[in-house]
Amino acid sequence: MKDTLYPEIIYETFDRYGFPALRIDHFDRGNYAEIRAELNYPDYLSVKLLQEITMKLNMMEKNENIEIQIINIDMIHKTMRVNIEIKQ
Q1: Strand 21-25's sheet: what is its strand order?
Q2: pLDDT in tens, 45-76
Q3: How would DSSP label each residue in the chain?
């Protein structure tokens, strides 16, 4: 990912890794965005599922040249909030 100016690229990227983006904020800075993504998991989060999420996020960081900060994982609403920043 080269910048965050085009939210459709962010939507496509998160969907490709299995986290459909529900909302994207502050993407107009060009190198930063706040994202709320859907988690398609059961009502609880086992250690194995948490490792799977972490693995996918690690792959996304490496392949898309971004840094991801996990802000919140909400299993009641089955969402995850993350901030991304383009690596320089």
Answers
A1: 21-25, 32-38, 79-86, 66-74
A2: 889 999 999 999 999 999 999 999 999 999 88
A3: ---SS-HHHHHHHHHHTT--EEEEESGGGSSEEEEEEE----SS--HHHHHHHHHHHHHHHHHHTEEEEEEEEETTTTEEEEEEEE--
Q: Are residues 70 and 82 in contact, defined by beta-carbon separation less than 8 angstroms?
A: yes
CA 79 to chain centre: 10
Rounded Cα–Cα distance for residues 81 and 74 (Å): 8
Q: Which two tokens stand for residue 16?
A: 């490709």
The neighbour count for residue 28, using CB atoms within 10 Å, is: 10
Site of tokens 């060009």? 30
The whole-number pLDDT of residue 43 equals: 79
pTM of the model: 0.90
